[in-house]
Design brief:
The protein has one domain (21-157). Helices cover 67% and strands 0% of the residues. The protein has helices at residues 21-51, 55-58, 63-92, 98-124, 137-157, 170-173. Helix 1 (21-51) runs antiparallel to helix 3 (63-92). The radius of gyration is 21 Å and the shape is elongated.
């Protein structure tokens, strides 16, 4: 009995998301929705600690911790939404350069992790009202976010738009 011929489609894990806008879109949709869930959950935990009057969180001596953790929640939630917006941008601009698109993707995902982590770790251990050393991650994440937004804005600015519809690439334009 002969073996069935394998299909020419590769499993998603083996394809390069940088060269395939659909895979990159799926990656950012998945990443965005999961990080949104994580940071909204963190917000609920912070609200619960506030409601239960947990001294570790609400004490006047822990004001820095409360601020840092609130900023971690807010930045994480916002960046999760930015990832969802990025996914839709990639989907609408299939002609956007794969190299720039891939670099923007990596920078955005790294910023989404580093910025909230910097705030959270900065508040985990505080020194006389100052954030801990984890705050060092924040400027690195901020710089990566700037690079991602610049590359995305540049990609959007260089795309061509056809009258009466979204940007189109070769096959869709025929």
């Amino acid at each position: 009995m002969s073996q069935p011929k394998s299909s020419t489609k590769k499993p998603e894990a083996l394809l390069d998301p940088i060269s395939d806008p659909l895979l990159l879109t799926k990656r950012h949709l998945r990443f965005g929705w999961w990080t949104l869930l994580i940071f909204l959950t963190l917000g609920l935990v912070l609200e619960a600690m506030h409601g239960l009057k947990v001294g570790f969180y609400l004490s006047v001596t822990n004001e820095t911790r409360r601020l840092m953790w609130t900023l971690a929640h807010a930045h994480g939630t916002l960046l999760a939404l930015v990832n969802l917006g990025f996914a839709f941008t990639v989907r609408l601009l299939p002609e956007w350069s794969g190299r720039q698109r891939g670099l923007a993707s990596v920078c955005l995902r790294a910023a989404t992790l580093l910025m909230p982590a910097g705030f959270f770790l900065g508040g985990a251990v505080i020194y006389s009202g100052d954030p801990g050393l984890g705050i060092i991650l924040l400027p690195v994440g901020g710089l990566l976010l700037l690079v991602a937004v610049f590359l995305t804005a540049r990609g959007v600015g260089s795309s061509r738009v056809t009258p009466g519809g979204p940007p189109q690439s070769g096959a869709a334009a025929k």
